[in-house]
Amino acid sequence: MNALAVRRRHPAAIFILLLLGLIVTGAGYAALAPKQATAATASADQIERGRQLFLTNCATCHGKDGLGSPVGPNLAGVGAAAVDFQMGTGRMPMAEPGVQAPRGKKVTYSAEEIADIAAWVASLAPGPAVPDAEYTTAEGGNAGRGGEIFRVNCSMCHNSAGAGGALTRGKYAPKLTDVEGQHIYEAMLTGPQSMPVFNDNNISPESKRDVIAYLKTMDEAGSPGGMALGSLGPVPEGLVAWVFGLGILIGAAYWLGQKGA
Questions:
Q1: Residue 16 lies in a domain
Q2: Which residue numbers delimit the Cytochrome c domain (predicted)?
Q3: What is the predicted pLDDT for the residue at 82?
């Protein structure tokens, strides 16, 4: 065999190839991976204001360190998004203990106070941040695509029209009409109550914006077909058909009987 035709491979060649492959893979993932739709970080002053507000208003249930008590869950790791959702929708503070915190008719705290408390809770441990406003508006969203995502992931609990529905043990999926886009995003991001978590790796920020666009479109469309009957599907529709349909048939039969007599 010709010695010139045989070339020895350097022992480090495989190691170098593997290292180059890892570098290229890491760089590609960093460039293409979904970005978290997070807002700006909090200052030390804001965190301290939030701590004072928390001690005054929330520590009774969640403990002075936010790590929970027999009547309130541990808040370490829930993130600022969970605080903004629960307090921004009036669910917290709860009026009384229950299996589920209902949406409040009014919000107890100002937006600034909620942001301060959220900043302090976020400082306890890493968690989902309040999303950027770019992704919490219906503008730029694809309502048609959002409807597809909603029907696949959300309609089994909230119903395809977002009218809500009953769950087990007294819990329920709330209706989604007149809900701010930011709170819709935060609910998907944090999974409140019995809702699963749809983080930005499961459903991207752009797709969440599409879902918000779909729900806002449903709000604006109303019920062009007539009475919505709660948008609860075939059960109320069947009930109406039976009650009115049978009533008309019975009335017609009585009228014919009287006429024949």
A1: no
A2: 45-125, 141-219
A3: 97
**pTM, to two decimals:** 0.74
Angle between helices 44-57 and 111-124 (to 10 degrees): 100
Q: Would you state the structure tokens that stand for residue 204, as one six-digit string?
A: 């991207």
Q: What is the pLDDT of residues 176-221, one digit of tens each?
A: 989 999 999 999 999 998 899 999 999 999 999 999 999 999 888 7
Q: Which of 163, 68, 200 is nearest to 125 (CA)?
A: 68
Last residue of a domain, one of 124, 142, 176: 124
Give per-residue pLDDT as tens, 99-111: 899 999 899 999 9
User: Would you say the C-alpha torsion 131, 137, 138, 142 has a positive or negative sign?
Assistant: negative
pLDDT of res. 4: 46
Q: What is the CATH number of the domain that holds 189?
A: 1.10.760.10
Q: Give the highest mean pLDDT range of 86-90, 244-248, 251-255.
A: 86-90
Q: In which domain, by residue range, is 80 found?
A: 44-124
Cα within 13 Å of Cα(151), Cβ side? 9
Per the domain annotation, does 78 fall within a domain? Answer: yes
Residue 155: inside a domain: yes
Sign of CA dihedral 152, 154, 160, 161: negative
Gap between the Cα atoms of 227 and 208, Å rounded: 29
